[in-house]
Amino acid sequence: MTIWLIIGGMTLILFFNRYLFLEPRLPIRLNRGVREFLGFAVPGMLTAICGPIIFIKDHTLNLSPGNPYLLAGVCAVGLMLWSRNVLLSVALSVALFYLFRWWL
Predict the structure, then answer these.
(1) CA 52, CA 48: separation in Å to the nearest integer?
(2) Mean pLDDT over all residues of the chain?
């Protein structure tokens, strides 16, 4: 029962957090500095999630050329800079990851 209350409470918090910024009739306006600051939230969150997956194996830093996560990550960055197409970059980098994982 406690778990369901926590899930419900977090759902309400998330909903009202989004609603306040997405409802055009509410008089909440963010200044330019806050909007620019919030623009860094998504890249920071993705870095915090993906960084340990890519660089750490067995609680140690793994920068070896045999690391399929590192190779696929470098390829993903290169594909994104080259193509500027998110869907193409994601699809090809996932395919390259599985290729590297199978090959190495």
Answers:
(1) 7
(2) 90
pLDDT computed for residue 46 by the predictor:
87
Per-residue pLDDT, 41: 86
As for how many domains the chain has, the answer is: 1
- Are the C-beta atoms of 101 and 68 separated by less than 8 Å? yes
Q: Give the domain range for residue 54.
A: 2-103
d(C-alpha 10, C-alpha 95), whole Å: 35
Task: Name the token pair of 31.
Answer: 């200044």
CA distance 49 to 46: 5
Give the pTM. 0.65
